[in-house]
Amino acid sequence: MTEISELQKLRLKYKPELPLILRTAFSSIKPKTGNKTGSAGDEEKLKEIFKNTFGKPVVTFTKGKNKSLNRKPIIAGVVLSGGQAAGGHNVICGIFDALKKANKKSRLLGFLGGPSGIIEGKMKELTKDIIDKYRNTGGFDIIGSGRTKIETDEQFQKTKETVIKNKIDALVIIGGDDSNTNAALLAEYFVKEKVNTQVIGIPKTIDGDLKNEEIETSFGFDTAVKIYAELTGNICRDVLSAKKYWHFIRLMGRSASHITLEVALQTHPNIALIGEEVFENKWTLSNIVDFICDAIVKRADAGKNYGVILVPEGLIEFIPEFKELIKNLNEIMAKNEKDLNQIESAKDKKEFIYTKLPENLINLMKSLPDEISSQLILDRDPHGNVVVSQIETEKLLIEMVQKKLKEMKKQGTYKGKFSAISHFFGYEGRCGFPSNFDANYTYALGFNAVLLILSGFTSYMSTIKNLTALPSKWIAGGTPLTMMMNIERRKGEDKPVIRKALVDLKGKPFKAFSKIRDKLKIEDNYISPGPIQYFGPSEIVNKVTETLKYEKN
Length: 553
Hints:
Elements: H1 6-12, H2 20-23, E1 29-36, H3 43-49, E2 57-63, E3 75-81, H4 88-102, E4 107-111, H5 115-120, E5 123-125, H6 128-131, E6 145-146, H7 153-165, E7 170-175, H8 177-192, E8 198-203, H9 221-242, E9 246-251, H10 258-267, E10 271-272, H11 275-280, H12 285-301, E11 307-312, H13 315-318, H14 320-335, H15 337-341, H16 346-354, H17 359-367, H18 370-378, H19 393-411, E12 420-425, H20 436-454, E13 460-465, E14 475-480, E15 485-490, E16 493-498, H21 508-522, H22 538-541, H23 546-552
Parallel strand pairs: 3-4, 3-6, 3-7, 7-8, 8-13, 9-11, 9-12, 10-11
Antiparallel strand pairs: 1-2, 2-14, 4-5, 13-14, 15-16
């Protein structure tokens, strides 16, 4: 980090706001605990897996004498896990500042390259000189990240050796649902092995699918959707100016459509496909194409041969017939790997696969553009599965809509002009300068994690609530990791996992969009929210997402 922009120079000086409770001396902050907790599902199975850590109470920090406070200097480790999200650096800054506030002799070690850094013992000490260069910046480059899972006996043993060798008192894992599931398993393992290393998780993911009653939002979501909304808003303005293109925009969010819904609420496109609704209604790909074409025809009849359509990244996995196709393909590819490797051409591979598929799925495969059907059988992840996130769904829809509209023209039911442009907004949103909300939120999450550690807690998620209020009124505490879990089938085995939060079709955000979407199909009610603002009136710089507003007010 040698060259920095003028904005970064100013952002380095920004002082994140903490909840009032965290601004006082730690000895004057008391952990208030509730009743024992259950889980999101499969309670009996989870009790067996987490014999030492299941059922812990929810924690809220209030004013009062903290009799359990650890006043000794401690060594804490921190790891960034999974994809980037704006604010990760501020979590680490919050941890560092809180450690030094508690005891100046405390130290912070950063594991390099994600969880593999713990397994391999690769780390560096994070000092004030290093920390001060990364305050309020985007990215995860301070220590790097990775997607390694600590799951084998050997990996757990090496992790144990690393924390004991380096005398690490506490480990903070910054990640999404899978990473925090790993945190819970590590916490259980350490207790079982009588290793005195506490484990605290931090809720991170731009997708917004790590939330529940205790976690109001994951960090990075606010910044990402504001970046995507700015880009989408710019296209909406261009559409209104040029009046000649249909823009199909694919947005990040493989497992849930929170990003697409939020961007729709902020920008008012003509169509926003919500994967969860597609699944609920059991829509086929043909149903989706018909839905889009209906809007295109109606707008063409009104003299509007243009529009904006939002498509969630994971749409294909929400289409029941596609879900069935992908499941079948994964099994066929695994069982016939040897035979398929001996077939050279994609065409011949398809013909071989057609002999293994049921007729309805053969017809679906044949209805797809050649590029997409080839991608389904040629592009595989390390486990041999279809790489769904790389399928260009927006281009698939454009091709199928074009085909349908040509048929309608021949029938005389469509007289407009259709020109389409495709976009994918993904990585643009992961490493931007965090919004003021995310800068404050992440700093508070890190600061709060240290208070949980000093108060003797392990296997907890650091949580900050009441997020629609000013930061001073935010509520700090902790949620047991096992409280958010259920059992899911992964790679043929039952595994404990933190349950993903999908878009609630009965929830206020979706209902708010439902009320306006019929109108948006025909009328031009586009909104251009503009770029994230870091300086200016509070109602602009401290603005929270529409999703959070609807859910909490």
